[in-house]
Design a protein that fits this description.
The protein is an alpha+beta fold. It has one domain. Helix content is 45%, strand content 18%. It has 4 helices and 2 strands; from the N terminus they run αβαβαα. The chain has a two-stranded parallel sheet. α2 links the parallel β1 and β2. It comes from bioreactor metagenome. This is Alpha/beta hydrolase. InterPro entries: AB_hydrolase_fold.
Amino acid sequence: MEDRAGEVRAPVLLMAGGADPFALPALAPLEAALTATTVRGPIVVEGGTVALPQQKPATVGGMIADFLDDLPD
């Protein structure tokens, strides 16, 4: 996905669980590839795994709500 990430123009929220063996190592390369947009993060939620939204819905939901609230109108 990094090969086309430079085409993304919409703001991006990057987050992963601290125990996610797939998303966590991908955060830095993905952030580096997002060259045409603003990026919030990367945010690492300690103890989260691949199932981060199900494990910590209030945490993830709060981060998404804050991200959306900060977007320009």
